[in-house]
């Protein structure tokens, strides 16, 4: 069979011209870019280890509809995990770090990378609200893992932590094992804490270190404490208590009293009632006595 190179070349050019039209190139490039973006945002960083499903869902980055995450389901970088009333989940990351999530919680799994050969890695987890337990795994460089809340950024060192985040951003970190450095809000200030201590950071960003509270040992008891709103007082906030003298931050009654004291003086006390005048002695006459008849 005789081949004609010129004819074959023309066929190839014709085919290429049909396939690589401007519109086709745009569609192909867009599809390829989407695949790259999807691949980059879907890096698996762990899986669910809680056998009983308790209502937890995950929303991948760029997706509107959440999906249930059950036992052995994978979680990926940039997933937002949420639980409802009575909900919970427990995840294990690449280095066997365990991360528990209590009810009514929201957390974003920003990233988590780990090299088993060198045991080096890094990660970032952003907790918006709820109760959480973090138990470090095999990562040698765990200080590269950042735990973030609205008022704190934690650097960990071989740590087990129980963290509570309130609706107003108040953060309480209880150190069960290891140690942490806590950056307060966006300040340069770093507050260290060790085993048996807790760091409390209210929205006013005034941190305090106190004795750790008793924390649950299992997922069933992991929940935000009822007194989370009192942390501003515990951390030296502006909230006054009973018996306040009405100064700044005092209770409502004290504040009203203080306003009254500054605006108008108290009235002068009334003179005591002298009672009825004594009867004059009739034997004592005189000018001021009663007349004699």
Give structural attributes:
293 residues, alpha+beta, 15-stranded mixed sheet, 4 helices, 15 strands, globular, disordered C terminus
Can you characterise this structure?
This protein is α+β, with helices and mostly antiparallel strands. The chain has 4 helices and 15 strands. The chain has helices at 5-19, 22-41, 231-234, 252-263; strands at 44-48, 57-59, 67-68, 74-76, 79-82, 89-93, 98-101, 106-115, 120-135, 145-148, 152-165, 171-184, 190-194, 197-201, 208-211. The protein has a 15-stranded mixed β-sheet that branches. The chain is globular and about 40 Å long. The N and C termini lie far apart (172 Å).
What order do the helices and strands follow? HHEEEEEEEEEEEEEEEHH
- From the spread of the alpha carbons, the general shape counts as globular
Q: How many whole angstroms does the radius of gyration measure?
A: 36 Å
Low-pLDDT residue intervals, each spanning 5 or more residues: 7-41, 231-265, 284-293
Number of strands: 15
Q: How would you sum up the major sheet?
A: 15 strands, mixed
Q: Mean pLDDT across all residues, rounded?
A: 77
Q: How much helicity do the residues have?
A: 10-25%
**Terminal-residue CA separation:** 172 Å
Task: Describe this structure in a few short sentences.
The protein has 293 residues and is an alpha+beta fold.
Question: How would you summarize the topology of this molecule?
Answer:
Layout: H1 5-19, H2 22-41, E1 44-48, E2 57-59, E3 67-68, E4 74-76, E5 79-82, E6 89-93, E7 98-101, E8 106-115, E9 120-135, E10 145-148, E11 152-165, E12 171-184, E13 190-194, E14 197-201, E15 208-211, H3 231-234, H4 252-263
Parallel strand pairs: 9-10
Antiparallel strand pairs: 1-4, 1-6, 2-3, 2-5, 5-8, 6-7, 7-9, 8-9, 9-11, 10-11, 11-12, 12-13, 12-14, 14-15
